Amino acid sequence: MTEPSAEDDAFYEDNELVSKYADLLSSQKDRYLLQASELLKNGELVIAKDGYKYKYLLSENMISFHVDRNHNATSVSAKMPIPDDHSARLEKVISAFAQSEAVAKI
């Protein structure tokens, strides 16, 4: 039997990320809707949850997030465009919440 390759590890990590994202998107949608309303109103949102600190910022047509992983002193950041249409904007913000929480736990 051969040892798993780096390619195999990346595949399983990607699979885990997609699975976590999908689970969070369905199970946390109500919470994400509340958070999205606050973020869209204030332009900034900071959340400390389960040993992670999430910071979200809206600027122009972009959303950015930064996640500090307190348990291993690492962080991850991303920036994504968001549309002008309110409904599409809301969905993109909700998606960013799920993405940030999924990637934090990988």
TrEMBL record:
This is Unannotated protein. It comes from freshwater metagenome.
